[in-house]
Amino acid sequence: KNEVEQSPQNLTAQEGEFITINCSYSVGISALHWLQQHPGGGIVSLFMLSSGKKKHGRLIATINIQEKHSSLHITASHPRDSAVYICAVVASGSRLTFGEGTQLTVNP
Amino acid sequence: DAGVIQSPRHEVTEMGQEVTLRCKPISGHNSLFWYRQTMMRGLELLIYFNNNVPIDDSGMPEDRFSAKMPNASFSTLKIQPSEPRDSAVYFCASSHTSGSGANVLTFGAGSRLTVL
């Protein structure tokens, strides 16, 4: 069992839909990152969380430390949101352990 | 700021050749990370530095891989000799780490390595 598990692995949505991507982890962490990787390969850090909730534009990230679970929500999804979304946790030091990613496709 | 700058963006080389990947972190960031991404294994941490000192190199696959950070503005990842299984995208990332913990990571665009 991976230390970081994401669901779903693949997600297809229609433009405008509300999207949720989930991340569960099995170790104690000091922080959790949500990353976005576009088809061109570049990786962008969306959020770093250690508790509660953060919002940036149409993106919302939440974390429940007790339940070892985080969610990434996208409101009013758009085709340009199509990307791979990766959850990564900081378990010791600054070492990141990555989930396998969720491939999101938003159709117009 | 131009962000994290990696070079080369693409490299194709033959098995046995030495490969050197370069990274310039964001000015003021004190932590630098080298990651490798493959289809089979996803993203993996190879090594990270804090204040130019290697902190965790347990992800370095074997002795063929070495990384240096001679100063706060430059790091190299070297593979010698290279093998076809080293083909991957290598990402460098930097952040500012303080006593209260790490901040958001900024990734470079990656160096796509193909070893024939």
Task: Give a description of the structure.
The complex is a heterodimer of chains A (108) and B (116). Helices cover 0% and strands 62% of the residues of chain A. In chain A, 34% of the residues are buried. By secondary structure, chain B is mainly beta. Chain B contains no helices and 13 strands. Chains A and B meet through β4, β5, β9 and β10 of A and β4, β5, β9, β11 and β12 of B.
Helix content of chain B: under 10%
In angstroms, what is the radius of gyration of chain B?
Answer: 14 Å
Question: N-to-C terminal Cα separation of chain B, in Å?
Answer: 36 Å
Oligomer: heterodimer
Helicity level of chain A, as a percent range? under 10%
Total helices of chain A: the number is: 0
Backbone CA Rg of chain A? 13 Å
Secondary-structure element order of chain A, N to C:
EEEEEEEEEEE
The profile of the biggest β sheet of chain A is: 6 strands, mixed
Terminus-to-terminus distance of chain A: 36 Å
Topology readout:
The complex is a heterodimer of chains A (108) and B (116).
Chain A (H helix, E strand, L loop, with lengths): L3 E4 L2 E5 L4 E7 L5 E7 L5 E7 L2 E5 L2 E6 L4 E6 L8 E10 L2 E4 L3 E6 L1
Chain B lengths: L4 E3 L2 E4 L5 E6 L6 E8 L3 E9 L2 E4 L8 E7 L2 E6 L8 E8 L1 E2 L2 E2 L3 E2 L3 E5 L1
Parallel strand pairs in B: 2-13
Antiparallel strand pairs in B: 1-3, 3-8, 4-5, 4-9, 5-6, 7-8, 9-12, 9-13, 10-11
Task: Name a few traits of the molecule.
heterodimer, A: mainly beta, 6-stranded mixed beta sheet, 5-stranded antiparallel beta sheet, globular, B: mainly beta, 7-stranded mixed beta sheet, 4-stranded antiparallel beta sheet, 13 strands
Compact summary:
Helix content of chain A is 0%, strand content 62%.
